[in-house]
UniProtKB/TrEMBL annotation:
One of the record's GO molecular function terms: dTDP-glucose 4,6-dehydratase activity
NCBIfam families: dTDP_gluc_dehyt
Keyword set includes Oxidoreductase: no
Family matches, as Gene3D superfamilies: NAD(P)-binding Rossmann-like Domain, UDP-galactose 4-epimerase, domain 1
Catalytic activity: dTDP-alpha-D-glucose = dTDP-4-dehydro-6-deoxy-alpha-D-glucose + H2O
Annotated keywords: Lyase, NAD
Record domain NAD(P)-binding: where: 4-327
Organism: Halopseudomonas pachastrellae
Cofactor(s) the protein requires to work: NAD(+)
Protein name: dTDP-glucose 4,6-dehydratase
Length: 354
């Protein structure tokens, strides 16, 4: 297959491309505009592979997207490009509306025109796979509740509302125009190459720098955590084996309170990096500090991933304990990757100046 992946320079997109190039014989065309979240350093291990191509383009640019589709003739599109950081969506929602809603519309429109013009055989195998989040479902009240594929949408933040809108558009393109779509809604991802503004890398890097570790509210919010390579494997499985028109929830069976996550990171750093801790501290946990809660903060997300397990046989390999240890080890062993993000030098890679 020739797979066009949008947002392939981001955290999950780059994991998906590394997984696809290393574990299949598919070709990949990475379409990414390289916002602050796009980092070509994350693709260094596969960028020389002849099955990989990069196209710098904005998904809101209809002409550029049409040209790329005509030039590469992909047999599938996996759509990950998005603005993805909830805090940024609260401070400046406009770009989330533009990329996540208008960008998805632009891509769907181009995909439909491209798909309609294919020969019957190519039309029948073509898929538009939209990658979304469990945050579209809002939060859960009762401890026994889980999000399923039929849970009504009730997004809370500008980010989740923009992703919910994009999911609705994708379903409408299936119902109205017959575009063969797949949607996946996944819980919080973590793992290597995660941009330092997100909770887990932010805590690891702040602790190593001896800075305070800010936890929203009392840290009791519950999230389900999925190791990013498990997500990448699920996505490829859904693309190749999933039933067109269907939605699959993807989760890690790893519900953790935010405070528990931060404490686990501190305990791992106490084991793995004791010499980098300030002599004034006996544990990295002493850096934890509680800050005013995020407005509209959802209390609990938890996923029922039974459908993807029963229909496609997928389940996560990593537990939270194994995945978080791998993640902390990765940040300790790959300092140049995150040092280049912090210094801003990673932005030079796109200009070929690295
Ligand atoms: P990310 O922010 O790390 O990466 C997003 C990528 O999209 C970047 O490379 C960026 O340059 C690119 N991009 C942004 N706007 C673009 C535009 N207009 N045109 C082209 N490219 C553009 O995000 P991520 O964490 O890898 O998430 C990828 C997808 O998965 C998103 O759609 C997100 O909603 C979804 N998702 C993320 C999580 C998570 O925990 N991170 C969980 C579930 C679903």
């Amino acid at each position: 297959m020739k797979i066009l992946i949008t947002g392939g320079a981001g955290f999950i997109g780059s994991a998906l491309i590394r997984h696809t190039i290393k574990n299949s014989d598919h070709q990949v065309i990475n379409v990414d505009s390289l916002t602050y979240a796009g980092n070509l350093d994350s693709l260094a291990s596969i960028e020389a592979d002849p099955r990989y191509t990069f196209e710098q383009a904005d998904i809101c640019d209809a002409e550029a997207i049409k040209d790329i589709l005509d030039k590469h003739a992909p047999s599938a599109i996996m759509h990950l490009a998005a603005e993805s950081h909830v805090d940024r969506s609260i401070d400046a929602p406009g770009q989330f509306i533009q990329t996540n809603i208008v960008g998805t519309y632009t891509l769907l429109h181009a995909a439909r025109q491209y798909w309609s013009a294919l020969c019957p055989e190519a039309r029948s195998v073509f898929r538009f796979h939209h990658i979304s989040t469990d945050e579209v479902y809002g939060d859960l009240e009762r401890p026994e509740d889980l999000f399923t594929e039929t849970t009504p949408y009730a997004p809370s933040s500008p980010y989740s509302a923009s992703k919910a809108s994009s999911d609705h558009l994708v379903r409408a393109w299936s119902r109205t125009y017959g575009l063969p779509i797949l949607i996946t809604n996944c819980s919080n991802n973590y793992g290597p190459y995660h941009f330092p503004e997100k909770l887990i890398p932010h805590m690891i890097l702040s602790a190593l720098a001896g800075k305070q570790l800010p936890v929203y509210g009392d840290g009791s919010q519950v999230r389900d955590w999925l190791y990013v390579d498990d997500h990448a494997r699920a996505l490829l499985e859904v693309l190749t084996e999933g039933k067109p028109g269907e939605t699959y929830n993807i989760g890690g069976n790893n519900e953790k309170r935010n405070l528990e996550v931060v404490e686990t990171i501190c305990d791992l750093l106490d084991q793995l990096a004791p010499t980098e801790r300030s002599p004034a501290l006996t544990s990295y946990r002493e850096l934890i500090t509680f800050v005013e809660d995020r407005p509209g903060h959802d209390k609990r997300y938890a996923i029922d991933a039974g459908k993807i397990h029963q229909e496609l046989g997928w389940e996560p390999i990593e537990t939270f304990e194994s995945g978080i240890r791998k993640t902390v080890e990765w940040y300790l062993e790959n300092r140049s990757w995150w040092q280049r993000v912090i210094s801003g030098d990673y932005r030079l890679t796109r200009l070929g100046e690295s």
